[in-house]
Automatic annotation (TrEMBL):
PANTHER family: ALPHA/BETA HYDROLASE DOMAIN-CONTAINING PROTEIN, PROTEIN ABHD13
Protein name in the entry: Serine aminopeptidase S33 domain-containing protein
Position of the signal peptide: none
InterPro entries per the UniProt record, alphabetical: AB_hydrolase_fold, Hydrolase_4
Transmembrane segments: 5-24
A family per Pfam: Hydrolase_4
Keyword annotations from UniProtKB, A to Z: Membrane, Transmembrane, Transmembrane helix
Residue ranges annotated for the Serine aminopeptidase S33 domain, each copy included: 61-189
Length: 250
């Protein structure tokens, strides 16, 4: 075969792979929703740079939870979790990443890390490290670990953690499995290395998005693991056991 034809075929394949990879990372990783759902509580709305978030202030507490949500919806879709954390005696701060809810911008892996770091820097102006708890949900778990390690925070809760995008693709029966090595984003193991704080892992044995057995690859980094039931989006969270873990860790 003519060398020029071979080069053109290879070039075309590389271009197609690049386009597919770019499209998947832009439009499949994230499923943001701009419109808020109606809420039960009255939140203090804040804007920090381009980031919009909510604060549920607990006047009787000097502790705060920074909530890093998952890949879909916006901050209004997790209100039941904020209320439970508030009942535990925490002020709850939640925020939307770039491109989610009322926060401007375009989401990307690095952008999520930068958004969370910016919010945590703001929190640290008011709260000491020992009084800050990071709660990560799904894709928000790599984000939570990233900022916890970067700012040397001592306590993290990981709910249904995404181990990596590659792991999710490998679990699906689709053509992307052939090039899953290109999707090495949100690799939580990379950020668990070197983290010295305590981690509570919550994961459902029924999870249809992130298989339960995938978490065994990170178990040696986990302080305590509590199995759950329910789907990835609607797990049955054992809030009483979370409270016990927090009490034991303080």
């Amino acid at each position: 075969m003519n060398i020029d034809i071979v080069c053109k075929i290879i070039f075309t394949i590389l271009v197609v792979i690049f386009i597919v990879t770019t499209v998947v990372k832009r439009f499949c990783y994230f499923k943001p929703i701009e419109k808020y759902k109606e809420t039960q509580e009255d939140y203090t709305i804040f804007k920090h740079n381009h980031i919009v978030g909510w604060l549920l202030k607990n006047k009787d507490s000097d502790k705060i939870v920074m909530f890093c949500h998952g890949y879909n919806g916006n901050i209004s879709h997790r209100e039941n979790k904020y209320i439970e954390l508030f009942k535990m005696g925490y002020t709850v701060l939640t925020f939307d990443y770039s491109g989610f809810g009322k926060t401007s911008g375009i989401p990307s892996e690095q952008r999520l890390y930068e958004d969370a770091s910016s919010i945590l820097s703001m929190i640290k102006k008011t709260y000491e490290n020992k009084n800050i708890l990071i709660y990560g949900e799904s894709m928000g778990c790599p984000v939570a670990i990233y900022v916890a390690r970067r700012f040397n925070l001592g306590l993290v809760i990981l709910e249904s953690p995404l181990i990596s995008i590659k792991g999710v693709i490998d679990n699906k029966h689709c053509l992307l499995k052939l090039v899953s090595f290109l999707f090495n984003d949100f690799d939580i193991k990379k950020y668990l290395l070197g983290y010295k704080g305590k981690i509570l892992l919550l994961h459902s044995t029924d999870d249809e998005v992130v298989p339960y057995d995938s978490i065994f690859t990170i178990n040696n980094h986990i302080t305590k693991h509590i199995p759950m039931t329910g789907s990835h989006k609607f797990p049955n969270i054992p809030w009483d056991k979370i409270q016990e873990f927090i009490n034991e860790s303080n």
